[in-house]
Fold each of these.
Amino acid sequence: MLDISTLHYLVLGAALFLLGVIGVLTRRNVVIVLMSIELILNAVNLNLVAFSRFWQSIHGPSALHGQVFAIFIITDAAAEAAVGLGILIAFFRNKETVNVDEVNLLKW
Amino acid sequence: MHALVQYIQSYLDSDRTPGAAGNFFWATVYILLVFVGLSVAVIAMNWLERKILAHMQVRLGPMRVGPHGLLQPIADAIKLLLKEDIIPAEADATVFWIAPFIVVLAAFTVFVVVPFGPTHAITDMNIGILFMLGVSSLSVLGIVTAGWASNSHYPLMGALRSSAQMVSYEVAMGLAVVSAILMTSLNDQGTLSMIGIVEAQKAQHEWFIFKFFPLGLIAFAIFAVAMVAETNRAPFDLPEAESELTAGFHTEYSGFRWSLFFLAEYSAMIAVSSIAVTLWLGGWMRPFPNLLNGETANLVFSLVPGATFLFLGAITFYNTARMPKHPLFRIQTIGLAGFGVVLAVIGLILFIPGVRVRIQDIFWFSAKVAGFMYLYIWYRGTFPRYRFDQLMKVGWKVLLPTGLGLLIATAVWAMRSEVWHDIIVPIWLALVDFLRRLL
Amino acid sequence: MNPPVATPFFFYMLAAVMIIGGVLVITRKNAVHSALALITTLLAQSGLYLMLYAPFVAGVQIILYAGGIMVLFLFVIMLISIERTQRERQFNKQWLVGIAAAAALGGLFIAVYTTTTKGQVLFPNVGRVSYVESGNTQAIASLLFDRHLGMYMFAFEIASLLLLVAIIGAVVMAKKRI
């Protein structure tokens, strides 16, 4: 318990991932769903950086592939948040609602 | 007692910052010193701003509260602390309460990496400049939440405008900073740490503002403009101008909460000025450290801190002599004379050889930052305010392209021999060869 | 190099902040409260990155995530947030199915993390990794840009193209008249 190993970080990442998944699947407000997606991406980043530390112990101190991947994911998350929020604004302008279950214009 | 002095001396002679050495006690001492110094600096800035602005506008400024208004900041602080704490009725109390703390947190945490000397920083992070830029961008969050939590349209508009302005000018600041970091990598000393950047300037014998003339100067100019806009100061202070938006995002804040915003604004000004001083103006180095390197030059430059305070004390005594000779002014005259004596004593203390050698770095750094503070006040007294669309136009259409072009120019000029030999010459030779085969 | 003395304490403190922040994100009615909770989670995550000896990623997380993406979220929340959303039903009709799915996923994680192959733990303890004191940014830069060692150059260029596409997309999406 007291010696922090890679497994501790992975369990924490898994817990955050689960919280994000619950947020995506249960909330109605689109903005909160997008924020839960950011939680999921952060959990993945934590996993990657923890694994990069693990990889460093095997392959030397400059094997930082996990950290580079994490930086790319942060960039990706920024792009996706921007586009997602743009879509949200466009939809809000038409329908005046921010609830996911009212996005049903294509339903029969 | 002697053991205590020995302990202090042995620490002051170490070659690492307290954070790097893992020394909790000295790190805490440095944190307290920085906190106290920052508070004193903010109080002094309050008085200086009002007096200097007044003198620029050919009036006198506060004169009543203490001799020449010296106790005015204390009167302001007492008034702010005793004011009634008003929260708007429909406002979200939790968020309303948190917002000033976010801004103060962002403004004060930045000082963890500010280098007052080669070992006089609280810590020397590997990513110092990245940390400073990042944490100072957290104050935007505090401003946005402050504007929203006030539940009133003037603060909301002020907050949205202010945060849009700060985010836009952060981009220009980042580009200027990157071209300065590029210059540190010339002697294989590329680093993001603040102390490393000043050491790179020392090793390359050139302040980065003069490097690759005029590229360093343009980078410094871009940063100087962007930092004024980043801290919402004149001439970019539309979001907090009284005639436009009734004090913008901090309209609904009164008393102690407003003073937190005020404290954060001045601390942010000092923080971005220290970034500018560290990156372009040589940090803690005295002028001409390599050109005038002899024993006498070192002695003369080490006398400057003490001489500055003695000069300030002399000005105070001169003003004491010019005070009206009326019995009602007796207390003020004695107060001003006392202040002059304090300044002169500080000056004399700074002449002691042991103190003189150690206070050099901190003094030159603080003097350069004080110069920037004077520039801030000068801008406020001189320039008319930018309209918001003009402000955004300058940020995106002028500073950003200039910053990008400057970055490319700096990179090309720094690697000019590689660019010439590995890119241009082969392309030219290939072109000549192709034409020869064609004809 | 002195081993850090307070690592378990800081890890558990930052982990607690992150979990509490995550729970607050998914349960608050008010979107601004969720955003503030997410900001604390991101800052705690940056602290965890520092503990994993990844200072550059920590700095990037503060600048981009907490200082950029969350500002974007707060802007949009303030532009479109309407008061009546706070009085409506917060959780949708399939919340039970959602929580069951998440519980199944959690069970999968537990099954993976407690697997032992022939008595060995899945991820052995890292131990003392030699940390290049001033080289993290340089090492990441050499992975990205170096002529011989850099293998992420293509991904870097594609990321910049992705950002360009995202900028154009967001502007086009949010315009009133195209």
Amino acid sequence: MRILKGNPVSRGIALAKVYVYKAFKADVHESYFEAGQEAAKFKQFTDALAAAEAELDTIVASLSVESPEKAKIFTAHIEILNDEEVAEEVKDMIMSSRAMPDYAVDMVFTEFAILLEKAKDQLIAARAADLRDVRNRVLRILKGEKEQNLANLREKVVVVAHDLLPSDTATLDRSHVMGIVTEVGGATSHTAIIARSYKIPAILGVPDATEIMQNGDMVVLDAIKGQVLLEPERATISEFEIKLEEFLKSEKQTAEYLDRIPLVASGERFSVGLNIGSTEPDDGFRYVDFIGLFRTEFLYMESEHMPTEDEQFAAYKKVLANAMGNPVTLRTLDIGGDKSLRYLVLPKEDNPFLGNRALRLCLDMPDMFRTQLRAALRASVFGPMQIMFPMVGTIDDIRAGNAVVDEVKAELLAEGIPFDEKINIGIMIEIPSIAMIADLAAKETDFASVGTNDLTQYLHAVDRMNPKLTNYYQSSSPAMFRILGKIFKEYNEAGKPVSVCGELAGEPLAAIVLFGLGLRKFSMNASNVAHVKRTLSLFTLAETEEIAEKVMNMDTQADVEAFLKAEVAKREQKQAMAAKK
Amino acid sequence: MYCKQTVLKNLTGLHARPASEFVACAKSFESKVTVRRLDVDDAPEANAKSIIKILAQGLSVNTPIEISADGPDEQAAVEKLVELVDSKFGED
């Protein structure tokens, strides 16, 4: 069995065979034909247009009854096909310049797509995608290739693709597509939105998925955890068949909790936050109290150059504007030797997770760090924001980070640039050495947020990227809960806010223990919000405290998980019984 | 050559459905038909039979435009298109 990881953008579980969907890839070169063939070449073009229109007519006819909205997409494609200006220019290239039809089509359609992209109106600019979609259709017909689409599938499949275009998803055969895996795309991509609206489990951003997976491979899609289990063992399949059934049942009940105020059964309030990693608005902002983790890596990863202060400032300002007044915790750059940027080659390290990464790298590259801090501080007047350093191991680290912040603040002050002078500066707690002295760290910081993924990795000495070690990576171990309990206690006693922004906060079973240990701020991915609200609503404060005490003294993680599952099941049954009466 | 000026009064402007209707109407005439916005100096003349050229103009509500036609049915074409614009494409 092989495990691939990605971003679960549409929750669910799927078990089916892989169907690798490779959309037609236009491979066009500049080429010309001999004089005398003008009429024949032009006819090839007009024939291709007619064939494309016939295909589109069929699609429109098949959609117009069931989903007229989607049919409109293709009606618009027919309009593009009949665009007089486009046809004239293609004709001109063929007749006067003797350009091969495919080359002429590619040139003209692309030129017009670029023209549309320049439009100020976003809706018009977005139509460039339709133009490219039509171009590909015409090019494919010119090449004599058949239409491959997801409209008529013979069996239930998990679709694996590089990316899906509007024309792919619009005709999607929903009765046979059990899941979607793509190599690119985030939570707000077209594919993600469609997958959620169709309730099809989807994991996006799985690198090389179309290379690794083959047609007909059996696959389990765990779009709760964000894992694709390739060629699973029989036991794994049965395990997930049960999970799927449970999932469907509980999904119905859970949905009702999304917009509820988060309360435990005895009435105590807790806060639910969101983890984000882009500037896109998220539907989940409406259901949460804060943005507990704003990862800034995307700015660096997606750029061709070191992002400038103004580029970063614009991005941070946009996030604050989208956050609907929710306070945003901006985490400074968290990369290291496991990732290189196109414009910045970091030396390969033998142990990148123990290496020169995150805050260490920022302190090592002060110009880069200062640019980010300047941008963040400048943005801080546009909404509630706080700044957090990742990978802090000692009080020295905290002081060194704070010193740079103070320098940058003094600079801005001297330049007369406004910023939030009372901005909170805090740390991620993910290295055991800082967790052990949380009482001292609390004195030097305004807040802390626990990154449970890295804390597990460092506490258990397990490389979390190594699929062979998944059994050793125990984020719900008694050891983890003991150290977490200490962190919460010290920060609560110091009167400084503490949150968890690692995956543990979004795992309903673990959340029970975290609450019992004193945590009141849970930051997670949007898809877990309703689940955590629902599970915690089943327990009273006293019960969670009792449970926390018990699990810290259990022998193994397996014992902890079995115990927590039973506690939840007991209460859900009770609730179901009460509902019947 | 025949031309007439008017102002877009429908909220959508010449986007989406109104743009489609406008282009379809222009295509029903034999004459060459163009649209030019009047609020920008040196605005290019857009072929009214090209949905892409029309969209790329970004003609929104309250934009003053000039519709011109050249050909056997030029007057009918311009009058019909101005009438369509002034009808607000059935909006509101």
